[in-house]
Design a protein that fits this description.
The structure is a homodimer. The first copy, chain A, contains six helices and 13 strands. By secondary structure, chain A is of the alpha/beta class. In chain A, the strands form three sheets. In chain A, strands 3-4-2-1-5-6-7-13-8 form a nine-stranded mixed β-sheet, with helices on both faces. Chains A and B meet through α2, α3, α4, β10 and β11 of A and α2, α3, α4, β10 and β11 of B.
């Protein structure tokens, strides 16, 4: 009998978020699932790791047949602690999410969900981050099930290229029209803070902002298809070296 | 009279670290310098941003002619707050560092120093992160001065390609033999935690680890030249899309 795949699940919204529960239910039909996720919300934590504080692992009741643990750290901490202290072998797959909110375009770089997926990739584990473009507490993850099942099973069967993981985003409030494999749209944020003052008159700032898609009409990009009701898959490389610019930088600095 | 360039300086070791002081002194000879850096150590913070807490800006006495501010947040928060609330125009250059410790190879992804540099790049500012491969409190930054001055002045004069910033590392305990423009070495960390137990017997973990260079004999990589006494420059692209893998992922998932 073939061994069931071992699937590690992480996220950045916390081990008890609705999105991770939905992903756990799907994955539990495909393998042995272990959840190791943050004990608190870790949105926007990118690939941050905890350098100068102790990390602790807490065991929780099984959920849908999956072992569930939390860590008092970031998504990357969770992946590293899972490998160090929880799993007895390297998992066959790492899934992160389902994130409550978009990780499309440049937001990949700030995303704790994708921080966990990129960490799995660095450790040589086929890794996928899933996100839904909705922060609503009533967000419906059900329409995503067949798409997540198909992408996950194909990656389990076929693997991923070395050094590459997947950033998968789904549109809110509809059943996806299909899946497009594309690149992240070029864009940036503006008006990034709301200004306040304390009762004593000291200014403070709270993150908000508007995302500007710099190529809204480009069908090569994730934002284009998400806006048209499709799920998008962007291959992501944690190694950020711009190999194609080594010559031009050499010309600038050395020659 | 030509306007002096406006240079924004950030780091992840805190606004009062020795490395940022050294960088400020160098930059102050080249332009008008404003330091906006974390109020506490933010090593390993990657591109994390503060989503659910207020950020405050504190003004400190000028240093070497530079305005100095701190922010109670991450390196990326500092860059964003500098643009939002400190500078009256987009800076001509962003410098981050000098970091106390290596950011070579895959460590770029965890680095708060490079988080700040990549944020500058996303905002369209030519950006450079500088690091010295030493955590010693007595680390000598002096031998780096001519190299930092030359790289910085060439980038000020010539700019950088769109969407690309620089990750510059220097060897410890010697004057660099020269500068090599290369890619980040392939590698990973192992034995990442030391295990402890509280007085009550509860296990906890503290990050440590050994870096394994997977291509120690490859002169195309940063680790190779750092080990031979050279400074290294790696062009870094914050957009992590693996454009060259879109077709293979399309074949895997769609076709």
């Amino acid at each position: 009998m073939e061994k069931r795949p071992l699937i590690l699940i992480c996220n950045d919204d916390g081990y008890d978020a609705r999105g991770i529960d939905h992903l756990t239910r799907i994955a539990a039909t495909m393998g042995d699932v272990v959840v190791v996720a943050p004990d608190s919300a870790q949105s926007g934590k990118s690939s941050a790791l905890t350098v100068n504080a102790p990390l602790m692992l807490t065991s929780h009741p099984d959920k849908d047949g999956a072992k569930v643990y939390s860590v008092n750290g970031t998504p990357v901490d969770c992946v590293k602690i899972a490998i160090h202290a929880v799993l007895d072998r390297k998992p066959d797959l790492l899934l992160s999410g389902i994130n409550h909110g978009s990780n499309a375009a440049i937001n990949n770089i700030y995303s704790g969900t994708m921080g966990a997926a990129m960490e799995g990739c660095i450790l040589g584990i086929p890794s996928i981050g899933y996100s839904l473009l909705s922060h609503s507490p009533e967000a419906d993850f059900t329409p995503l099930t067949p798409f997540i099942r198909e992408i996950t099973s194909k990656v389990l069967a076929g693997g991923l290229p070395e050094g590459v993981c997947l950033n998968v985003n789904f549109p809110a409030r509809c059943t996806p029209m299909g899946i497009k494999v594309v690149r992240g749209a070029k864009g940036h944020w503006s008006e990034e803070y709301q200004d306040f003052a304390t009762p004593h008159g000291t200014p403070f700032f709270w993150l908000t902002g508007k995302f500007h898609n710099e190529e809204p009409d480009n069908p090569e990009t994730d934002e284009y298809w998400l806006g048209r009701g499709y799920g998008t898959v962007v291959p992501i490389r944690p190694d950020q070296t711009a190999n194609d610019k080594i010559n031009v930088i050499t010309d600038l600095l050395i020659n």
